[in-house]
Write a structure and sequence with these properties.
This protein is mostly helical and 240 residues long. 78% of the residues lie in helices and 0% in strands. The chain is globular, with a radius of gyration of 19 Å.
Length: 240
């Protein structure tokens, strides 16, 4: 049939990439990472492999609770995504994952460097959304960017003004819009529901916050990171 014909014309690497995508979709983080790493040994220049392996490094970096492991995986992911971006500059995935990995790198940087990266991260996410507005992760990432900017304290903002003239800015409304768009595209994302809860809680809109924390608490949780977020949502809901 057609599928067999398709498989015959497909290279071994392409069919294994499809298998890796299935692992990723079902949150099999380690299996996805291991398979992509094996493929990478055979083909270090394939951009479709490069961005996926960058994503797999990020997934492991978030899953681990060891800071030094997380940092190494993040650095490796950035190397891979930078290379992929040179090869496929019109693929939304490279902008999205470069932005995500730069954001993750912020966990290990001083405020000054973090703020310098903030503009690059924002532009990456905006470009990813422009190239594919139907991707819920890119919408969520833009919301998370807005949220992190809203958390920057007055002192840090003053320091940023001295360094950059105009530090990056955002509003609760902008953050909420991206979150609602992300949720409309994927109504199982515990990270989206949890951040909506945080957003309303910070604005003292407690009934709305509780609603979203409760929603987050019932979202599917497969990975350790998702389970941690479900627990966090339950704890936060009890405080509303």
């Amino acid at each position: 049939g057609f599928c067999t014909l398709l498989k015959k014309n497909m290279s071994d690497i392409e069919s294994k990439i499809i298998a890796a995508d299935a692992f990723h979709a079902s949150n099999k983080i380690r299996e996805n990472y291991d398979l992509l790493n094996e493929l990478f040994k055979e083909d270090t220049k394939n951009p479709e492999l490069l961005w996926r392996l960058a994503r797999a490094n990020y997934d492991l970096a978030v899953e681990t609770t060891k800071k030094e492991d997380s940092q190494l995986l993040t650095e490796k992911g950035l190397e891979l995504i930078n290379e992929a971006k040179e090869k496929i500059p019109d693929n939304f995935n490279v902008y999205k994952w470069q932005g995500i990995l730069l954001g993750k790198k912020g966990d290990f940087l001083a405020t000054k460097e973090k703020i310098a990266n903030a503009f690059i991260i924002r532009d990456n996410f905006k470009k990813a959304i422009e190239l594919n507005p139907k991707d819920s992760t890119s919408q969520f990432c833009m919301a998370k960017w807005c949220w992190s900017i809203l958390q920057v304290g007055w002192m840090e903002r003053q320091a940023a003004s001295l360094l950059f003239g105009t530090p990056p800015t955002s509003t609760y409304e902008e953050c909420e819009k991206y979150l609602q768009d992300a949720w409309a595209l994927n109504q199982e994302g515990v990270h989206t529901a949890l951040l909506l809860g945080d957003l309303y809680y910070q604005q003292k809109k407690y009934p709305d916050a509780k609603k979203w924390f409760d929603t987050a608490a019932t979202c599917p949780a497969v990975t350790d990171n998702q389970k941690r977020q479900v627990d966090e949502a339950k704890t936060k809901s009890s405080k509303c």
